[in-house]
Amino acid sequence: MPAVTKRHETIEERLERFSPHRLSARSWASARDDAVSAVLAASPSDETSAVCLISRLCAFLAAHQSWAGEDAPDLAVLLIPASIDAFVAERLRRGERRGTVGLYRSDLRRIARAIGTMAPVAPSGGTRTCAPGVAFWRVVVDEGPFTALVAAYERAARRMRPVTPSRWAQVEATTRLLIGAFGPPSRTWLSSQAGYLARFCVWVASRPERDDRDAELGAEEVLERSLVERFLAGAMADQPGASRSTARSVLRRAVQNLSAAPKPERIAHAPVQPSAPVPLGALLGAAGLRSARTLAD
User: What is the CA radius of gyration of the chain?
Assistant: First the structure.
């Protein structure tokens, strides 16, 4: 019989199956989307690396005194250099091997850099950088943040279905608003996750319910909360669970933040409002009349 070759899991599929030992089922349900999203932002090279990263992140969250495990952890607040150093110092105090603790420090800092809570490592003088990559970012950044966003999206589109130039023009303004509402922590985030927002906008703009599916997408059209789950169940139904979880986390945060942002004041017709009430006696006096009470007296 021919040998059966076992298909290797993708990183997303392996993270989908991951179950931490240090977090309860309830805490993991709260943290899962954000933890997976952060690990994917760190660009693990394979499934083993991804599991190591998420295992150490879960250990960090389990020990963090500011997170009770009931709500989604705000990694932008929790995973900062001071907290990582405190976590590492406590493990050393408990007598753990320095080599093991060093791996925790390295992986946590790697995730922190990926989500933008820690400054990237400055290249040493003898380190050769990728000239095309440096040139690419120098050009798009010099052209402005939105141009950099478009370029980053085009790179991220390799993981998604391609978006035609006409579609991008249709959703560009609203995609920018969603990304700004999310508050991207780094260029790495733009390259790996901004595409979820663009694809969501294209899906919303293409819905049959729209009166004009060729019209530019308005920001108010993406604020309906049920749209995120419908998008995940439809357009992303064929994607791995980890990818859907990451998309859900990104979209929910962006839509929630955008809906909470101050809205521009609308200039509309305002009917004339009645003035403050005037006592009846004053009106009668102005008309040269007296009130019934006065007449009775």
Answer: 28
For residues 291 and 297, give the distance between their C-alpha atoms in angstroms, rounded to a whole number.
10
pLDDT digits (tens, 9 = 90+) for 170-222: 888 898 888 888 877 666 666 667 788 888 999 999 998 888 888 899 999 99
pTM score over 0.85: no
Q: Is 242 helix (H, G, I), strand (E, B) or coil?
A: helix
Residue owning tokens 């939105």:
146
For 173-236, the DSSP string reads HHHHHHHHHH----HHHHHHHHHHHHHHHHHHHT-TTSS-TTSPPPGGGG--THHHHHHHHHTT
Query: What are the tens digits of pLDDT across the range 235-278?
Result: 888 887 777 878 888 888 889 888 875 544 544 545 555 555 55
Residue 124 DSSP symbol: P
196 neighbors 251 (Cβ within 8 angstroms) = yes
Tokens of 175: 């995609």
Cα(30)–Cα(51) distance, integer angstroms: 18
Sign of CA dihedral 220, 221, 222, 227: positive
The answer, yes or no, to whether residue 285 has pLDDT greater than 80, is no
Question: Nearest-CA neighbor of 184 among 133, 244, 250?
Answer: 250
Residue with tokens 């004053």: 282
Q: What is the pLDDT of residue 138?
A: 42
Distance, CA of 295 to chain centre: 74
Task: List all residues 6 or more positions away from 16 whose beta carbon is below 8 Å from its beta carbon.
Answer: 240, 241, 242, 245
pLDDT digits 0-9 by tens, 124-169? 444 443 443 444 444 444 444 444 555 554 454 444 444 567 788 8
Buried b (16+ CB within 10 A) or exposed e, 230-240: ebbeebbeebb
| CB distance 54 to 35 below 8 Å | yes
